[in-house]
Amino acid sequence: MEQQQFKIIIADQSHQDFARIICDEMESSAKARGTGIAKRSPEYIQEKMREGKAVIAFTEDGIWAGFCYIETWSHGEYVANSGLIVSPPFRKSGLAKMIKKKIFGLSRTMYPEAKIFGLTTGLAVMKINSELGYEPVTYSELTQDENFWAGCKSCVNYEILMSKERKNCMCTAMLYDPKDHYEPEETTQDFKKHSKLYERFMRIKQWKLLAPFLKHHVEDNGVPVSKEGNGGGQRKSLFHRFHMFFNF
Ligand SMILES: CC(C)(COP(=O)(O)OP(=O)(O)OC[C@H]1O[C@@H](n2cnc3c(N)ncnc32)[C@H](O)[C@@H]1OP(=O)(O)O)[C@@H](O)C(=O)NCCC(=O)NCCS
Question: Which residue is closest in CA terms to ligand 1's atom 33?
């Protein structure tokens, strides 16, 4: 079968009519996955387009295929590439990877000093982020901007986030710090090497977080638990950082 070609461009006001279909797809995809999302309105998406803070993808025939946008927090100290969505017929053909690459480049150009971060429950997004040089971090390394965390209120897991005092939840946090980061080759290799374990860690973490809500007794699962904090000192290995998620 012929490989589908895509046009991936920085969105502008001429794309505003696509905001509704983008929001609808975000919502139905979240429902299908059984996960929550920070809800976005078409007006918010349109604003991002007008500001040149979004990337949109089309097929060669002009059919909408994907989207992602930039948000800034803590007065521009942090940037998040949010709302990544690929239209179902075009999934698994590398489009999300291309969109993320484009929005990452745009973020680096617009906010060269900013730390770029993301929260995700999906292994696909973790893989893509790893290939861009993101590394896993604890929630304490993310923006503490109240407006960012307020966005989680519409997520089905908000109660879990609050019960953990915003230190942990179902999502994995990943961050690219322009001043202190691994090379993309290193983070890519690390993900390749440990992806099966990371997947298992995520499942265990999510199960542990859900357990109190399901009123189950949580047994020791034998996964190494780090009692170290995440403060200063030497950089920890990427693999070690995943262990830190069990420090809750
Ligand atoms: C997640 C999503 C954006 C991925 O889009 P996509 O275009 O299918 O992703 P890509 O084809 O670029 O895949 C990137 C990598 O992830 C892998 N991948 C894709 N979907 C996957 C899945 N469901 N589970 C595990 N790996 C997956 C691909 O195999 C690819 O790896 P490779 O480089 O080894 O081939 C898309 O499924 C989507 O829009 N989902 C609903 C919204 C969503 O979950 N957004 C993310 C919010 S954080």
Answer: 94
Q: Where are the alpha helices (DSSP H) in the chain?
A: 19-33, 42-50, 95-110, 123-132, 146-150, 158-163, 184-214, 238-243
CA 12 – ligand 1 centroid, Å: 25
Six-digit token string for 61 = 């025939």
Quick check: helix, strand or coil at residue 85? strand
pTM score of the predicted model: 0.85
| Domains observed in the chain | 6-246 (3.40.630.30)
Mean pLDDT of 192-203: 85
User: Tens of pLDDT along 138-167?
Assistant: 999 999 999 999 988 888 889 999 999 999
pLDDT in tens, 85-109: 999 999 999 999 999 999 999 999 9
Q: Are 12 and 50 in contact (CB under 8 A)?
A: yes
Which residues line the pocket of ligand 1, CB cutoff 6 A?
Answer: 29, 84-86, 91-97, 120, 122-125, 127-128
Which atom of ligand 1 is the closest one to the Cα of 123?
A: 25
Cα–Cα distance for residue pair 133/151, rounded to 1 Å: 25
Separation of CA 45 and ligand 1 centre (Å): 21
Q: Ligand 1: distance of its center to the CA of 2 in Å?
A: 20
Q: What confidence score (pLDDT) does residue 43 get?
A: 97
